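**Backbone geometry record:**
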Amino acid sequence: MNSNFDIIIVGGGAAGFFSAINIAENNPKLKIAILERGKSVLEKVRISGGGRCNVTHACFVPNDLVKFYPRGEKELRGPFHQFCSGDTIEWFEKHGVELKIEEDGRMFPVTDSSQTIIDCFLSAAKKLDIQILLGQSVQSIFKSEEYWKIETNHEVFATPKLIMTTGSNPKIWEMLKYLGHTIISPVPSLFTFNIKDSRIKDLMGVSAFAKVKVKGSKLEASGPLLITHWGMSGPGILRLSAWGARELFDKNYQFVIQVNWLNETTFEEAIEILKDLKQEHAKKMVSKKSPFHFPNRLWESLVLASQIESEIKWADLSKKQLTDLANQLTNGEFQVNGKSTFKEEFVTAGGVDLKEINFKTMESKVHKNLFFAGEIVNIDAITGGFNFQNAWTSGFILAKTITEDFL
């Protein structure tokens, strides 16, 4: 059977639905179909943000927003000037979904349920008569003079305009490669560090704002660091994993990190602070209370690692012990052996080479009438709603382009 549509979107996720709805709202006469290989749509939306769906981030300045994208910073600047986080809030409000801002800037539906976003998309698609075809696994994509031919496990589709929103799908990347696109090989982008070290062994759940560097490289990041069962996690570590995705992959996830538990405080400054504490608290025991903004348990552990027994008083600290302690505080080295995926929010760096996309239109530079939105391209971000924002922005831009083409 041959099914013809004005526009076919491959991939029933966030970017696919946003593209389809925006095109249909711009021009309700167009016949649009979403092909989804699974039994249901919007699965990633369902599980994102712990089932609450982190829709976007309260960062409203395009030039600031791009800084959250290890890959795509330069390319997204123009697109974000067309459709940014503020536009996302407005779009959802118009569609009956109110968003709220949390302390860390992440934005969620006020219902705290990703089902709200799914319902919003599904009801808009129904109202606009967008066909959602499930269980359609694409087997091949072929380009003729006038049309794209898409063969699935069930039927053959033809369309003048093809939109790819399949996220990190190796099979689809292979097909695009065959069509002449360059695919940047995928590597994990958000992951936590596996570390076995006596200093953090029993500190699960302890968190501190720290600066972390990868020894022997330019990679560094600051942010809350969380000690877990298997090592270290938290925004600071995830940021480092995102910016270092390629480099850490090349190191086979075996490397040393240097942790500054005092964030920006230097080794020399730490020595001075400790000398002051030595005078101020001469009669008190060193290990008893953390003089810094991190929990006592972590302080005790670093004191112990500096060869300072638990009964020692500040006045009795030797010069060597002071130096060792300053070193543990500002430059503790930890061996990383492997990684763990961060929750269910699996993000990969990789995808269609950004040089082959026109970011004013989201159209392929290799083939006319082939468009991309979302994570199928080599763009990724740290957690916080940024990956979704890329999906909304790219979907909005290609919708505008395609609608103008049909006028």
In short: The first strand starts at residue 2 and ends at 4. Residues 138 and 152 are 4 Å apart (CA to CA). The radius of gyration is 25 Å.
